[in-house]
Amino acid sequence: MDNWETHDGLEPIAIIGMAGRFPGAKNINQFWQNLRDGVESISLIGEQEEIL
Fold it and tell me: 31: how many CB neighbours lie within 10 A of its CB?
């Protein structure tokens, strides 16, 4: 049984390109690996820190 058989009614999507900055990941590949592995990478921003 593949994933399509277990998700009735869901449409497939394609991610064409992606860029960003993610806590706990040096690049997009590591970001996806962290998602797959369930790595918690939330970071809190203090009042004195600037959001760029």
Answer: 19
As to burial, measured by CB atoms within 10 angstroms (0-12 exposed, 13-18 middle, 19+ buried), residue 22 is middle
pLDDT in tens, 26-39: 988 999 899 999 99
Phi, psi of 34 (to 5 degrees): -60, -45
Residue 10, both tokens: 């869901």
If phi > 0 it is left, if psi is from -120 to 50 it is alpha, else beta; for residue 47 that is alpha
Note the pLDDT tens digit of each residue in 4-22.
556 667 788 888 888 888 8
* Two structure tokens written together for 27: 């690049």
